[in-house]
Amino acid sequence: MIEWLIVIGIILVVYVVIKMHHFRHVRSKIYILFVASVLLFIFVSGMILVKKNNINILSFNGVISTIKIYFSWLFGVFANAKDVTGSVVENVGNYTARLKT
What is the SS3 string spanning 66-101? Predict the structure, then answer.
């Protein structure tokens, strides 16, 4: 429950910052929304990780364990994205080569 209150708090802070500063440039709004989205992603995915693995984040060992698991998961996601991108590029290259013949 407290996790959702923190998420709502982050969203409200971003909203208030955007409204208080009256950003005239769209780039500033996009930057703030991007940073907020990254923070929300890290927070929510970290909380899911902690709950699914029953990790006590109040202890030092729990924090270290959470960081290790989180970054191994994150690097795995990037590795999978790299493999998928490579396969797509290879298939597109094969398709265009067949079209030229």
Answer: HHHHHHHHHHHHHHHHHHHHHHHHHHHHHHHHHHHC
Question: Domain-by-domain residue ranges, the chain?
Answer: 2-100
Q: What is the pLDDT of residues 3-34, one digit of tens each?
A: 677 778 877 887 777 776 666 666 777 777 88
pTM over 0.90: no
User: Are 81 and 70 within 8 A, CB to CB?
Assistant: no
Q: What is the CA radius of gyration of the chain?
A: 20
Find the helix packing angle between 26-53 and 60-100, rounded to 10°.
Answer: 120
Neighbours of 65 (CB within 10 A): 17
